[in-house]
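Reopening this one. Same input as before:
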Amino acid sequence: DAFDEEIKIRKENEERRRSIYEKEMTARQEKEDERRKAYEEEHKVRDDDFKQAEINQLKARKAKEFNKKLAENISKWLSQYMLEEREAIKKLKDEFNRKRTESNQ
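Same output, byte for byte:
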């Protein structure tokens, strides 16, 4: 009887130790999971910020290229317009001088 009682006590103690060990391991695993999740979340935010910064740089570069090409085209169009205007003014002057010369004779 005393032997059975001791075995029973040992089993209960073993069961308590196992339960405590399982609780500790569960708590450790939960803490580790929380740490890993926080780490992943922090790096996700960093990655998202980095990606957004890259996108912003690309947009800025494209806008700069577009503005440069637009400025070049405006310059070309303006030069062409000025040239055409000068030619038109010259033609008008020539026409005016020709008519004046004809009327003077």
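So the earlier flakiness isn't reproducible anymore. For the record, The mean pLDDT is 94.
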